[in-house]
Amino acid sequence: MNIVKVLSRHRLLGAAILSMFLLAACGPAPLGTSWAGLTTVGDQQYILVAFNDRLTMVDPVDGKTVRLRNAEGEIRLDDSGNPRLWDIRQGQNQFFATPVLEGENSLLVAGYHQVLYNVDLPTARIENGEGTPIPSNTGNLVADPVVSDDLIYVGLSTKNLVALNRDDYSLAWTAETEHGVWSKPVLVDDTLYFTSLDHNLYAVDARTGASRWTLDLQGAAPASPAYVDGKLYIGSFARKVFEVSTEGKILNSYDTLDWVWNTPTVKDGILYTADLVGNVYALDTTDNLREVWKVRPSTMAIRPSPLVTENYVLVASRDQKLYWLNRDDGTIVSDSEGRPLVREMQAPIFSDILLIEPTEANGITEPMVVVSTLSPGQMLVAYSLEEGRFLWTHSLA
User: Fold this and answer.
1) pLDDT digits (tens, 9 = 90+) for 88-99
2) Residue 377 gets which letter from DSSP?
3) What is the DSSP string of 242-265?
4) pLDDT at site 32
5) HSE-up of 118 (CA within 13 Å, CB side)?
């Protein structure tokens, strides 16, 4: 792919794309070249943030860093009598991939410099010291890993996807590609599906890595496919969204107005996605990807996957705004005072949006949405789902 063309045709995402190309090189990546990886952990739905050289866990109730507790539930204190916090600063490596829960009390974290870390959840301690290097030299780690009973699947930023044995992280097999794998693979039964910047969607035997099929998506594919009801849905830089069978046949396609860099969200037979000039699409998967509606709430890139709830489609943009759209027709929702339900942040938003539901364990009284910006001073921002009411902000000190 020609970087000059990328920058000239898409200046709105030029800096981010160039940063990701730099990640594919062998040298160290500068801090701040990517967005945060977010996930939730446990019944409390603590928010785990991976950004730069930090791993932090945040309480969704108040947006504060989680305090560590002993076996009796008492807050642990440091030598100065201050509460110990769930916060890891790994100065020798960086985190671009979202951590994966590997066991009830253990996280698997991929470090950029081809290293895997085991983190003990209760103590926020890296158990394998400086990490375990993976046996490969074809790129760094920016894609989220996937864990099965026996194997760990990791995409590499320059080319190839590798499978490692869980017991000792030795190499089990390699699936070769012509360019980097930047997205999380999808494991369905005994088949692993993954995309590459070489324009292809791959299906391999999850146990052996043997190829089952390869499908040309006509453009780079930096996001994961969505697997729903026996079919795969994937967007690409060919300005298309594809519906693909598990045999590797294109069943339907839809032409978007620009590049697609997110995993589609499919709910009740409708696929929702967005492109890099701010368009949002709703397509009927039961009717050959027929367009249900198409709107353009933003004039800048929408990279995160849409968050779809019962009534809303939420999208976040490089224009630093979070939009609530009516699920029926894509129009912007109005708040109780008749104003557009749009919330503006301090920096662009590239991370996926989190939905935190109330549970007995977390003590939250209403659903909330959490977004992450590129600003460490506004790393997380939480709003109520129904009214867009500001709840809290979490900053990285």
Assistant:
1) 998 778 898 999
2) G
3) EEEETTS-EEEEEE-SS---S--E
4) 52
5) 15
Residue 153: enclosing H or E segment and its boundaries?
A: strand 151-155
CB atoms inside a 10 Å sphere around CB 155: 29
What's phi and psi for 238, nearest 5 deg? -80, 5
CA pair distance 109, 145, nearest whole angstrom: 8
Radius of gyration of the chain (CA): 21
Neighbours of 99 (CB within 10 A): 24
Q: Which of 184, 189, 180, 289 is nearest to 226 (CA)?
A: 184
Quick one: tokens of 70?
């002993």
What does DSSP assign to residue 25? S
Phi and psi of 314, rounded to 5°? Answer: -100, 130
How many angstroms separate the CA atoms of 396 and 374, rounded? Answer: 11
| Residue 19: per-residue pLDDT | 52
Q: Count CB-CB contacts under 10 A for residue 98.
A: 20
Question: Phi, psi at residue 392, to the nearest 5°?
Answer: -165, 165
Give the bridge partners for 342, in sequence order: 323
Q: Mean pLDDT over residues 109-119, rounded?
A: 93
DSSP structure string for 37-96? EEEEETTTTEEEEEETTEEEEE-TTTSPBPBPB-TTSPBPB-TTSPBPBSEEE-TT----
Buried b (16+ CB within 10 A) or exposed e, 180-201: bbbbbbbbeeebbbbbbbbbbb
**54 φ/ψ angles, rounded to the nearest 5 degrees:** -120, 140
Phi, psi of 152 (to 5 degrees): -120, 125
Both structure tokens of 155: 């995409």
Q: Reply yes or no on whether the pLDDT at 163 is more than 80.
A: yes
Percent of the chain whose predicted confidence (pLDDT) is above 70 = 92
Q: Which of 3, 8, 14, 39 is nearest to 301 (CA)?
A: 14
At 393, is the secondary structure helix, strand, or coil? Answer: strand
